[in-house]
Structures are given as C-alpha cells and as structure tokens.
Amino acid sequence: MQHLDPDRLVLLALSEELEDLSESDHLTQCDVCRHEMRALREVAGIGSDVQALRDLPPPPEHVWQAIEAGIARAPAPVAPVVDIRQQRARRSRPRWLTPVLAAAAAAVLAVAGTVAVDRFTGRAPAEEVTARATLTPLKTVPPNAGGDVRVLSDGQLRIDVRNLPLTTGFHEVWLLDPDDPGKMVALGNLSDQPDAVLPVPPGTDLKRYRLVDVSDEPHDGDATHSGRSLLRGTLTG
Amino acid sequence: MSSDDELAERLRDGDETALRMAYDRHGAAVLYLAQRLLGNRADAEDVTQMTFVAAWTGRDGFDPQRGSVLGWLLGIARRKAVDRLRSMAREQRTTATVQAQQPPPEPDRTPEQTVDRLVVADELSRLPVEQRRTLELAFFDDLTHPQIAAVTGLPLGTVKSHIRRGMANLRRRWEVDGATFGSRSAGPTRAL
Lengths: 237, 192
Description:
The complex is a heterodimer.
Chain A: H1 6-13, H2 21-29, H3 31-48, H4 61-73, H5 84-90, H6 97-121, E1 129-137, E2 146-152, E3 156-162, E4 170-176, E5 184-189, E6 195-199, E7 211-217, E8 229-234
Helix pairs in contact in A: 1-3
Chain B: H1 4-12, H2 16-38, H3 41-57, H4 69-94, H5 111-126, H6 129-139, H7 145-152, H8 156-177, H9 181-186
Protein name (chain B): Sigma-70 family RNA polymerase sigma factor
Domain RNA polymerase sigma-70 region (chain B): 23-90
Family (chain B): Belongs to the sigma-70 factor family. ECF subfamily.
C-alpha cells in the first residue's frame, strides 16, 4: 500500500487543502498514516495556540534571589571535612539493613530520651568534663547559631545549641571522623530542646570521632546523614 | 547561548551559573505554568522558587535522554503546584473563611495542554530562523504555502520543506516532553 506523501500530510494537517476521496479512503484504512495525521494535526493545533507564549515577560529577579537563598539553605556540605552527600549517594545499603538500622537508631533514641529525662529531673551534674567543643555555624547557617558540647566522664555528651534554623524535620547529633569522610556515629536528636544529654556508645574512640556535627534531617525514614550540616566543632580533651 | 545538553551537563556538575541560565531561559515558562495552575501570582512565585531549588538539589536525577531541561522543570513545577493546591485545600477546610480565594484557574485549558503549549513554544523558538518564520506565518497568520512563499520570497518547494521539517521538529519535541502525548499515544483518548 502506498502511503500518503509526507508533504501532502502536512498540508492536510494544516487544513490548507482538503482530502480527496482516495486520500480519505487511505486514511480510513491505514493506521500509520492516520496516526501520522493525528499527531501532525495536534501539533499544528498547539502551534497555532502558542503565539501568546512567545513573549512572556522575563522572570522576576526577586524570585531568583529567593532561589539563591533556598539553595544556600539546602545541601552542599562544606569543605574541608566531609562530603557526606556523595558518600551517601554512592553507598547502597542492602534493603534488609535499613529496618535493622532504623530499629537500632530507635533504640538509641529511646535510651537517649530516658537519659535526658533522668538528667533533667535528677540532681545537678557534678561529673568531670573529659572533652569539650564549641560548635560554630556552617556558612549557610545564620552566624548567630552555635552551641557548646561537653563530654562527661560517665560517657554522656551534653550539648547546648542556640539559634538553630527551624526545620520541618529534626536536628540530629553526630560524631564524625574528619579523616575518613562518611564514617560517623549517630548520637540522637535534639527533640526541639536547646540542650540535651546523649549517651556516647561505649567504646567510641573520641580521638577519631572527634568532630561533633548537628544536622537537619528530614522525616524520610533514611537513617543516614542528610548532608545538611548546621553546626560543627572539634572535641578537645 | 549554550545548548540544552551543555546546560544539563553543567547543572549536573554543580555549576550554579547553569541554574541561573536555566532560570533566565525557562523561569518565565515555569512561572506561567504555576500561575495557570494556582491562579495567583504570589503562590506561583513560591512554586517557581521551589521548582528551581528542587531542580538544583535533585539535579543528579535529571536524565537528558528522557526529555529536555524545560520538560523536566515543568514536571517538577506541576508536582509542586499540586502540592500547594492540596495544602491550600486543607487550609480552606480548617479555616472556612478563605472563600474569597480565586476562581478555579484556567477554565479553558487543562494543565497538560498548558505544558504542551510551553514545550512547543520553546521548540518553535529554537528552530532555524527560516523554519521558524515559515511556521509562524502558517500558524499565526494562517497563510497558505503559496502565500508564505510570496511574503518571504522563498521558492514554494523551500517553504514546503521548511514547514515539513519544522513540523517534524515540533512533533518530536512534543512527543518527548509534552504532557498529553503519553496518554494520547496509549489510546484515542482525545478528540481531534
């Protein structure tokens, strides 16, 4: 079967000329040409309808400024320490492991919660401080944000933060190994409190995991670091 | 002006100036779509902002094999606008006083048709000058091929081939990026 000439199809699609009888017959019989014709007609219809879109006004500059601000708040982990996002993207964890880790994280949080309650309802702390750190904001975070960390001789880490940016998720505390990007220990979250006491897992080498990191974590069920670090500081003993 | 492919590559490499370029090139279309979907300028600007921020953070997920930068951005913008409409609806339920909202936006065209138009308009603007000019005369001025030949001084055969090639380019782009093509090709869902 001889298909219709492509130029002719375009003419028909643009309704510039009318189908003659043999063309109409062909179009009723031939799926290929009919499909072709329908697509061309549709494109021609859309094409005739786009004149108003040709000269859209340029997008406003203040929206661009909002985009820039949004990007600054968003990810982009900060040199020189850890490029966690890349680590995270590359690391593919076995599917079965995620619930296990989530359960482990939940256990850690449960313990942290209990401990925190104990601390605040209990006696005044008199423990010895074995290491401390001053937390400073990363450059995408308002400069008045900050915090202090003390590690106590009983293995608890006391953290005070101030002026953290609001989050729709939660703030999580980590100990990072600055020499080995991607290696880190999750300590627990701040539960909207300006201070918290979190247990450091026994046996954690604080000479190695000496970089305290507070991150903004979304509620995405992903137990790994979001890559959005807000505060950091190095523990010194 | 660099090509779409180059723009995409620079975006994926984390080049922030590429995002600015994408905004200059496609921000107006994103804003237009958002405004058609949401019916008010302030929300449309918010959605435009969220779209480009999401495009930046999700730039690793952009696959040039599957569509153009504009098609990708419009897809993000649609999702963001739908999210916004849902949360507006929620707010409306809780504070039933906000009824002085806008009338339902875009009574005349579906979101899919708006995406189709933006994509085709973009492709039209990228065609070689003579292809574009002949198609504009056919589409907007409703001129016949011989009339176009007379207006432009091009031979009739050249006019025909410009139009055929131009139509083929628009169609390819629409099939790749258009919102309605998927449903349309799956079955005769739309009357002509």
